[in-house]
Design brief:
α8 packs parallel to α10, α9 crosses α16 and α10 crosses α15. A hairpin with a 5-residue loop joins β1 and β2. The protein has 18 helices and 11 strands. The relative contact order is 0.09. The longest helix has 37 residues. By secondary structure, the chain is of the alpha+beta class. Strands 4-5-11-7-6 form a 5-stranded mixed beta barrel. Strands 1-2 form a two-stranded antiparallel ribbon. A two-stranded antiparallel ribbon has the order 8-9. Helix content is 55%, strand content 12%. The protein binds flavin-adenine dinucleotide. The site of flavin-adenine dinucleotide (FAD) has 20 residues, from β3, β5 and α12.
Length: 597
């Protein structure tokens, strides 16, 4: 049986000692997040993850969701009760605007909490996750009336939310979408069309489901410029705010899928369903992007979260399973063989995952802090720069953390030998669940293109220059620190490779766009390596400071530094291979004619 323990101490080290988040207590909501409050919230979130979400993880996988003939959907046993506990604990509105019932705590804290919940039960955590994305879009682009009507109930968790983009003939290329919206002359629209793969589209855990739907107003221009965003509730809302008649929305079927069985993935049919416009006509994608950016960070977090739980279980197994003897002599003479954790190749897997998880956690919390600054700082310049950095890093977080997250669930499964392939041990579920994160919310190939094709050049490259400067300044400022020399040397080498690749695109991709497409996946991963390396350098410095002070758990800080050294020894050098591949351009990739495949 698998187990899960929320990595609270690691989160606290990152927040308090590495990111020193207390520096930001001039931002709204941060004053309420004193260190003791943060620790209390994390400990309680850890308990909810371990005791409420986690026990339902395998149940959800085995039972899945069931659609009935009337279109209603039943979630796995225990989900409804667990959702009530989540709701009553006030978790939905943890980081949300107090004007609508939220607690207004920093987004960085919400992010830390979400990691635990996704590790414990990714399929279940998606129900609140999608609701929070829908809340964000309504909050930024909704009218006052829409905000008053929907947000308080969603914050309370009485109503949940979804995002409806995908149609049978279009996923990546939303310009092809056909769902239509007909104005009724009273400010409402009638929405007709079919959406597929809608997560949490129908279920039994809330009184109403608020669908955010992309559709094309009759007569709108072709392509993405003619798409608008609508709120379409499952049940109409009465004048007094109570739930009224059914709207023309129904779940036609639910998908049989590879993983996340506890989440209902629905075909949603809209048949003259009444909806209201969110934001401006034909500017739906812009409004949806608020939701998509938040959702992309949430999906990146899923990659990390599954990697973490898979790692924890692989470690337990590797200490317990005895096979063979250590190459450097018997380590456990009292046993008939040594535990497999003594073998360097087993360590290679475990250390690779560990060095990713601890840096990935810091990376996503660091990015969440940037988001807090972007949305809460009164210093317009600082807020704009943080927003640009966030925009730049969103595809990196989504693409790298989910590609690696999946790779690591496979590595962790490998530690179990044949037992990893047997359902009872739980590793197979992590592999299956993690796989979707590479696909939805924009397949990872598209994230890489977004980074290279759009984000790099945005506002004259201000975001990327700011990132290069931050990492470069760290290396420069610490150049005399002998204890950090090894780490900054390797970080600087990675940064130089990344800058060379960026320059290569500037010189070679304008005239030949296939060169950008051919190198984008490598570039995204290279960016991820430098960002993770930067996180390791920051963590190493903080751990060394703690050791010098003589406070805290010495073994924990020694382990941090050893893991950091492993990352720079064994993982960071991959930037050279990425650079070499990028510099070959698209020629060999595109040489074979289409019809020769
Ligand atoms: C379990 C599950 C849950 C989902 N939940 C939701 C949801 O809640 N709401 C929602 O709206 N959607 C949802 N989706 C849909 C998901 O977001 C899409 O499947 C995804 O965006 C990819 O779209 P597609 O499947 O049409 O693939 P396609 O767009 O057909 O892409 C196929 C492949 O081609 C590549 N490709 C496409 N265009 C390009 C290009 N221009 N350049 C390079 N490569 C390209 C892609 O990277 C991909 O590998 C979900 C899907 C699943 C399976």
């Amino acid at each position: 049986m698998p187990s899960y323990s929320a990595p609270i101490d690691d989160t606290l080290f990152i927040l308090n000692d590495v990111l020193k988040y207390e520096r930001f207590n001039n931002l709204p909501g941060f004053a309420d997040a004193s260190p003791d409050i943060v620790e209390a919230v994390l400990r309680e979130a850890g308990r909810v993850a371990e005791e409420v979400f986690f026990p339902l993880n395998q149940v959800g996988d085995q039972e899945g969701c069931i659609r009935h003939d009337d279109g209603s959907v039943t979630t796995p046993k225990g989900f409804k009760e667990a959702f009530s506990q989540y709701k009553e604990g006030g978790w939905m509105g943890l980081g949300f605007d107090p004007e609508y019932g939220g607690q207004g705590l920093p987004y960085v804290l919400h992010t830390a909490v979400s990691e635990y919940l996704s590790s414990a039960n990714m399929a279940f955590a998606m129900y609140p996750g999608l609701t929070q994305g829908a809340m964000a879009a309504i909050h930024v682009h909704g009218t006052d009336e829409q905000k008053q009507t929907y947000l308080p109930k969603m914050v309370e968790g009485i109503w949940t939310g979804t995002m409806n983009l995908t149609e049978p003939h279009c996923g990546t290329d939303l310009g092809l979408l056909r769902t239509k919206a007909v104005p009724q002359g009273d400010g409402t629209f009638k929405i007709t069309g079919q959406k597929i793969f809608i997560s949490a589209g129908e279920h039994d855990m809330s009184d109403n489901i608020i669908h955010l739907v992309l559709a094309r107003i009759e007569g709108a221009p072709e392509g993405v410029k003619g798409i608008s965003l609508f709120i379409v509730p499952k049940f109409a809302i009465n004048e007094d705010g109570s739930v009224g008649d059914t709207n023309g929305v129904s779940c036609g079927s639910i998908e049989e899928k590879m993983g996340i069985h506890g989440n209902s993935t629905c075909v949603m049919n809209y048949d003259d369903a009444v909806g209201t416009l969110v934001g401006e006509e034909h500017k739906g994608l812009k409004a949806m992007f608020i939701m998509m950016n938040e959702a992309r960070l949430g999906v990146g977090l899923q990659g990390l979260a599954i990697s973490e739980i898979a790692y924890q279980n692989a470690v337990i197994y590797a200490k317990d399973r005895i096979q063979g003897r250590s190459l450097s002599g018997v380590k456990h003479a009292d046993k008939k063989a040594d535990p497999i954790i003594v073998h360097p190749d087993v360590r290679r897997n475990l250390m690779t995952i560990r060095s990713f998880n601890e840096a990935g956690r810091a990376f996503i919390l660091w990015a969440a802090l940037k988001s807090d600054v972007a949305h809460r700082s009164e210093d317009k310049e600082e807020a704009a720069l943080s927003e640009e950095m966030m925009g730049l890093l969103t595809p990196v977080i989504k693409g790298v953390l989910t590609d690696k997250g999946f790779e690591h669930t496979v590595m962790a499964q490998q530690m179990y030998g044949g037992h990893g392939y047997i359902e009872e041990w739980g590793m197979s579920q992590y592999v299956r669940d993690a796989r979707i994160a590479m696909i939805y919310e924009g397949a990872n190939g598209i994230q890489a293109l977004d980074l290279v094709g759009r984000k790099l050049g945005m506002n004259g490259g201000r975001g990327v220059q700011a990132f290069f400067k931050e990492v470069g300044d760290f290396c420069q400022d610490n150049r005399e620190d002998e204890n950090l020399a090894f780490f900054t040397k390797h970080l600087k080498k990675g940064l130089n490779d990344l800058q060379s690749a960026t320059m290569w695109f500037v010189q070679n991709a304008m005239a030949k766009p296939d060169n950008a497409g051919a190198g984008s996946h490598d570039y995204m991963h290279m960016f991820g390596l430098v960002a993770l390396g930067y996180m390791w350098a920051l963590q190493t410095k903080a751990a060394q400071e703690k050791l010098a002070e003589g406070t805290g758990d010495k073994q924990y800080f020694d382990n941090k530094i050893a893991t950091s050294r492993f990352f720079f020894d064994r993982v960071m050098p991959e930037t050279s291979a990425h650079l070499a591949r990028i510099s070959t351009g698209a020629d060999s990739m595109m040489a074979i004619p289409e019809d020769a495949f």
